[in-house]
Specification:
mainly beta, two-stranded antiparallel ribbon, about 450 residues, globular, 16-stranded antiparallel barrel, about 10% helix
């Protein structure tokens, strides 16, 4: 009996030890990066300097509280692939209720256009001259556009809960050196108020590119907004926003005239989150009203516009991630990269003098990212945007654009990145004429 008791005690000890080992293994697995992007982010988190302020040394809180506050610098629904990394220098209160970071990025892009040149820093198929112009076949240029400075403060308050304030300015004026506000917003718990990327954009589903403009069929819009976003058990995310409009109406000044916008753009979305690596599937909707003046009837009119978008980012393995988005609608062309260069939200209706209509459109983007190592990755993406106007448009007007890109990036350190990419684009007009262009991009970027 005595031996049995000893054996039972030994067995219980082994089981308890095994459970401890299993718990340790699970904890290590939870801390281990789930993909190469997370591995890079971990390196960025470890490359920081913290300065303490407020209180005395004896009131410093636990490392867990400190790490939780610092981690919030890396959770931002408005962060884009091309934005600077989280700040290198942080100032933090000793009770871990307030932290402040000042950072930015020095970004240099150089490019060579051949087989068709564009006048912009961004590679925009809409801007390809049609028919092809022999005087605009090649171009060599470089710009510091995209160089940025930002300031962010995050904290916890008994009255407000979790809050964050963010301001970012970029040097990307007309000549690439003008300084202007890119983002400026405050987030309090689920609410955001300020100047930020439209809630209709799914920034995480945009493929990585050096190009300043991005794929032609991709949503791109920044405005003053009031947005709400709420996570449900980390599986679902719901969001909605009211955004100040910027409609683009092709009034001719003879039978029609532009009016000031008076109705906000309304966005809503639902998102299903899957996996530990940030995979999701999102369905978004946009509703807008665009006013204009009917000079023939001497009265004000308006037309409704809308769009729906399905977007996703899907990490398939440690080093492979898929990106995809598709949208369609009418009267929201100014939200799409390629079509925002021209007033296409409302076009004149030649069958009804003084009237305008919202033309249909669609856009799609798909890409894949592959990490050769944690520090070296590349991607390939394709995109198309298409205007589906039924009338009221000239033969030399843009009908559709095609965009293809292949690139490679090397994170030489946690904050130094270089890259190269090849782009090819094509523009086709309603009269059937078309032309193409090619570009090679180079990137040097240092985040601090």
């Amino acid at each position: 009996m005595k031996h049995i008791c000893v054996l039972a005690a030994l067995l219980c000890g082994l089981i308890m030890k095994g459970e401890e080992c299993m718990a340790d293994s699970m904890a290590i697995a939870d801390r281990a990066p789930v993909n190469a992007e997370q591995a890079h982010l971990d390196k960025v988190k470890n490359s920081r300097k913290v300065a303490w302020f407020g209180g005395d040394e004896s009131k410093a809180v636990s490392q867990d509280s400190i790490q939780n506050l610092i981690a919030r610098f890396y959770i931002d629904q408005y962060h884009h692939f091309q934005d600077p990394e989280a700040p290198y220098f942080l100032m933090m209160s000793r009770d871990a209720t307030l932290a402040m970071g000042i950072g930015g990025a020095v970004r240099m892009r150089g490019w060579y256009d051949f087989g068709g040149a564009m006048p912009y820093n961004g590679f925009i198929p809409y801007s390809i001259p049609v028919p092809a112009d022999d005087a605009r076949r090649r171009r060599l240029a470089a710009t510091p556009a995209g160089t940025a400075l930002f300031f962010r403060i995050i904290g916890t308050n008994k009255a407000l809960g979790n809050f964050s304030a963010f301001i970012q300015g970029n040097f990307d004026g007309g000549d690439g050196t003008g300084f202007k506000i890119k983002k400026s917003y405050v987030t309090i718990n689920d609410w955001t108020i300020g100047y930020a990327s439209s809630s209709f954009m799914d920034l995480a589903a945009d493929p990585p590119v050096i190009d300043a403009q991005g794929p032609c069929g991709q949503v791109n819009n920044t405005s003053v907004l009031v947005a709400w976003r709420h996570d449900i058990r980390q599986r679902w995310t719901l969001g909605a926003s009211v955004e100040f409009p910027k409609s683009a109406v092709a009034a001719d000044g003879v039978s029609t005239k532009t009016l000031a916008d008076w109705f906000p753009d309304i966005v809503a979305y639902g998102q299903w989150n899957f996996g530990r690596a940030g995979g999701h599937l999102r369905l978004s909707g946009l509703l807008r009203v665009m006013p204009y003046r009917d000079l023939t009837a001497a009265r004000n009119r308006s037309a409704a516009g809308w769009s729906a978008q399905l977007s996703s980012v899907a990490p398939l393995s440690y080093g492979v991630t898929l990106f995809a988005s598709a949208l369609a609608g009418k009267g929201a062309e100014s939200y799409v990269n390629d079509m925002m260069l021209s007033p296409l939200d409302l076009l004149p209706d030649p069958g009804r003098d003084g009237r305008m209509y919202a033309p249909w459109f669609w856009g799609a983007t798909a890409g894949v990212r592959y990490n050769f190592t944690d520090a070296v990755f590349g991607s390939v993406s394709v995109s198309e945007s298409r205007l589906m106007a039924r009338h009221g448009i000239a033969g030399d007007q843009y009908k559709y654009g095609l965009y293809g890109v292949a690139n490679i990036f090397w994170n030489m350190s946690a904050r130094l990145q270089v890259g190269a990419e090849y782009l090819i684009g094509r523009r086709c007009n309603y009269n059937g004429e078309s032309a193409s262009a090619n570009r090679v991009n180079l990137l040097f970027q240092f985040s601090f």
